Amino acid sequence: MQGLTRRQLLAGAAMLPWLLPGALQASVGRARVLVIGGGFAGATAARYLKRQAGQLDVVLIEPKSDFHTCPFSNHVLAGLRELGSLRQDYRALQQQQVLHVREWAREIDLQARQVVLQGGQRLRYDRVLLAPGIDMDWQVIEGYDRNAASRLPHAWQAGAQTALLRRQLQAMDDGGLVIISVPDNPYRCPPGPYERASLIAHYLSQAKPRSKVLILDSKDSFSKQALFQQGWQALYGERIEWVGRAGDGRVVRADAGRRELLCEFGQRHRAAVINLIPPQKAAEIAARSGLVDSSGWVPIRPATFQAREAGDIYVAGDACIAAPMPKSAYSANAQAKVAVAALLADLAGQEPPSAAWRNTCYSALAPGQAVSIAADYGIQEQRLVELPGSLTLSPLQPPAGLRAQEAALADAWYQSICMDAWGHLA
């Protein structure tokens, strides 16, 4: 990309959507804050809590020693990156004196103000920053459970599932069909399945040119639809086919042994590789703690991101209901900062600062070509809203070089947000 250096790209991508208030070190005391989950929201929250109030006792409860990011995992499927390039660890947080407890947090005992670990131990807290991410909702698609996912991977939590789907794509005979099944909203990363289709189509065009991708969608429209479909036609011709719900695209039953899907109105599909992305919900700890509503997600108080049912629990990232903000890494990072600011103000006995958020999402169409969507969010009449006039989309008729520029910005954003959350470059 001409005209911008990598340093300038990183600097631009690093601009924070939220600036924390002045230091509250003198007034928050030595309270204990337990951060549950070490993804984009949890790692960001732990770093900013300790950065803003170094005397806080900040404990990160996360059973894994490292974390693989979902952003850029589609590049791994296409052979454009190695899985190890997505790996983040918690060494920088530990160097900040964040205690990393490698255990599953099973439940929050709201009455006792304790987090119950999988082994039965209990940790006292003054506040909790809950950022556990998602679980798959195994009850929705008949025949699709954890065992079936070993044959029909969802690959919607990066790591072993990503590697499994990549191996299946590599082993598939040329001419084989790849199906991607997409759930209804809300789910993690709304444009993600369509970026996945793009990059898998790129891989097929290089390695298995007689193969195709079929997208079976539970919706009749999707994020960046015009941009994706224009890109598909220009780059891949008829290699990608999309079927919405009205065309019988909603999958209701899976047969992992036969690699077969049954759709709502009776259509059956068999394929060499099936990437079945099921409906999702907040991670199980949220339900066990009585924090979710009938949707399966955690409702929050929009100005502070406190759980609606418990004022000393703050929730950020994919587990919460923060519509119209999408469930994205950028959103999780921004929400964590707002939640930290509100939490510190709460400990100090102060009013929370005014809240503002931004989300930007880049999606790859092919190596070196990407499109984007961005919007700003704020509070109006005690509701979280998209601010009028803030929505921007890549143009359908871009000037020369724009798609390449957005791909470079996507890479810079990824490096920047990983540094912001985990303390080192991806």
Automatic annotation (TrEMBL):
Residue ranges constituting the FAD/NAD(P)-binding domain according to the UniProt record: 32-144
Keywords: FAD, Flavoprotein
Keyword Flavoprotein in annotation: yes
Gene3D superfamilies: FAD/NAD(P)-binding domain (3.50.50.60), Flavocytochrome c sulphide dehydrogenase, flavin-binding domain (3.90.760.10)
All residue ranges annotated as the Sulfide dehydrogenase [flavocytochrome c] flavoprotein chain central domain in the record: 162-278
Any GO molecular function: oxidoreductase activity
Taxonomic source organism: Pseudomonas peli
InterPro entries reported in the protein's UniProt record: FAD/NAD-bd_sf (IPR036188), FAD/NAD-binding_dom (IPR023753), FAD/NAD-linked_Rdtase_dimer_sf (IPR016156), FCSD_central (IPR049386), FlavoCytC_S_DH_flav-bd (IPR015323), FlavoCytC_S_DH_flav-bd_sf (IPR037092), SQRD (IPR052541)
Pfam families: FCSD-flav_bind (PF09242), FCSD_central (PF21706), Pyr_redox_2 (PF07992)
Residue span(s) of domain Flavocytochrome c sulphide dehydrogenase flavin-binding: 354-422
Record-given protein name: Sulfide dehydrogenase (Flavocytochrome c), flavoprotein subunit
